[in-house]
Amino acid sequence: MPPRPPRPRPVDPPTEVIPRVEDEDDYDDDYYDDDDYYDDEDDKPAPPPDSFARKAVRGFGEALITMGLVVLLFVVYEVYVTDLLSAEKQEEATAALDSEWGSNTVTPPPSDPNRQNKLTLIEGKAFAKMYIPIFGNDWKFSVVEGTTDKHLEIGPGHYKDTAQPGEPGNFAIAGHRVGKGAPFNDLDLLQSCNAVVVQTQTQWFVYRVLPMSNEVAGWASNPKSKDPACAGVAPLSTTHGDAYAKTVGQEIVVPTQGEVIAPIPHQVNTTVPPDKQARLLTLTTCHPRFSDRQRLIVHAIETKSYPVADGFVPPEMTEG
Predict the structure, then answer these.
(1) Which member of 134, 157, 175, 243 lies 3.0 to 4.6 Å from 184 by CB, making a disulfide possible if both were Cys?
(2) What pLDDT does residue 76 have?
(3) Confidence tier at 222 by pLDDT (50, 70, 90)
(4) Residues with Cβ within 8 Å of residue 107, at least 6 apart in sequence
(5) 111/164 Cα distance (integer angstroms)
């Protein structure tokens, strides 16, 4: 066979040259020299310097914020932190009192109900326990001798030189309403005939809140007066004379009115023989809450007493 002719070779297309991308440096500098390219902020005028008034307002605002934070921290400390510190001190005082009562020989109560064994009161030391059943089973505090800030950080404090529990006269106790344990926080909620129970090593004393000022006039016809819980409760002016006309269940006074804890409240120059005096309990605290501008006062009268005995709890303790 004759030889085949050679096959034609394919022809490659011409190579396309891609134009080189110019570097940034190759751009026209004139483009960047255009002032419109740059941020407009460069064209803004500089702010005027702060005036004295502007600085004063800014400083005053910062001071108010700082003061607000300080006040907030102070409130948190007074309301919460001091409660924790006082609770610890109250526990220590109660433990010491329980230990003393457990180790001492109990002196039997006097046979004459008009007489009462004198307690040995030591400043800053607990000598009795107080319960307000209407506030619940967990409301209980040991009462210490003295009413200074140091004493009231522990718990309710007994006014020196006022009567002892169960004695004729006025057994007066002070307590904080906010912070530092706040034992008397709800004192304003007490109503006439509510019980306040005080326990010493040998005796239980039951005091009941006196009729309120708006109940005195019509107490005899008040259905509450027939309630068994109100037995022994009546306006003192009808049972102990006009000297007690101002002594009612609750009152608000100014701090300078110390006569509310006198043996006969509001009567500092009146002499009444002890056997004619009512056996009162007076509780005092600040009013209103978060203020010491006034004092809230609650007066109660002793209606019953029981000797301390193993396992015995006064029935009044269940009235909560």
Answers:
(1) 175
(2) 57
(3) very high
(4) 117, 201, 202
(5) 18
Residues 116 and 129 sit within 8 Å (Cβ to Cβ): no
DSSP state of 185: T
Token couple for 159: 């006014």
In whole angstroms, what is the distance from residue 298 CA to residue 246 CA? 12
Closest CA to 223 of 269, 192, 198: 192
- Please say whether the beta carbons of 73 and 81 come within 8 A: no
Cβ proximity of 159 and 281 under 8 Å: no
Q: pTM of the entire structure?
A: 0.76
CA 82 to CA 66: how far, in whole Å?
23
CA–CA separation, 109 vs 213, rounded Å?
A: 35
Query: Following DSSP, what letter does each residue of 139-158 receive, concatenated?
Result: -EEEEEE--SHHHHTTS-EE
The SS3 assignment for 46 reads coil
pLDDT tens-digit readout, 235-280:
999 999 999 999 999 999 999 999 999 999 999 888 889 889 999 9
pLDDT tens digits for range 60-116: 787 888 777 766 665 555 656 668 889 999 999 999 999 999 986 555 555 554 455
Count other C-beta atoms under 10 Å from residue 97's C-beta.
19
**Largest pairwise CA distance in the chain:** 164
How many DSSP H helices and E strands does the chain contain? 5, 9
Q: Measure the CA–CA gap between 212 and 232, rounded to whole angstroms.
A: 15
